[in-house]
């Protein structure tokens, strides 16, 4: 079977393909439906934006759709960039621009002399997933988080987005130094996916 994910983010697509392949599902993304207009993500929460995407695309295609809204919340920045993580450095910003912007914002917050600490602030990744079925209007949502630290020393070539700057003390690695498999086990997206499949299974038992 196929699963449609309402995303134009190649890093997300790779992670969903990896997660759903063992279930025999092929992931289709918005790259497979280029005629669909972009969904305006003007909600104030990750869950709200995920639902906007799953509903708009689900209704446009007349098929069940999964959507992911995610981002990085940094303590020293009062939770920013949050729902604005994708456009932190401006509309259509590249990952690299967002990462530079994040480091410069945290640099600006440093007071007095440099302590030489590579860890700048506690932070968390948040992922909200929304599954919407236009046939009966059913929606399921699940949210996952992972705690870590922003490091001033980017490392790793895996993952995407802010992963090279997200340090996990327990692993002594950044998220970008993990394999797809390892990231899936601990990430906000992996956690949200497990919660969503649990909810779906519980619903189907009823
Ligand atoms: P879609 O809306 O098309 O799915 P997007 O990239 O615009 O793609 P979001 O609006 O959800 O997605 O923004 C997510 C932002 O958070 C974006 O800057 C990502 O790079 C970042 N992000 C999300 N999950 C991440 C992860 O697992 N690792 C690193 N960065 C992540």
Automatic annotation (TrEMBL):
SUPFAM superfamilies: ITPase-like (SSF52972)
Residues involved in substrate binding: 7-12, 70, 160-163, 183, 188-189
Stored InterPro entries: dITP/XTP_pyrophosphatase (IPR020922), ITPase-like_fam (IPR029001), RdgB/HAM1 (IPR002637)
EC number, UniProt record: 3.6.1.66
Active site (record annotation): 69
The record's free-text note on cofactor binding: Binds 1 Mg(2+) ion per subunit.
Family: Belongs to the HAM1 NTPase family.
Name of the protein this chain belongs to: dITP/XTP pyrophosphatase
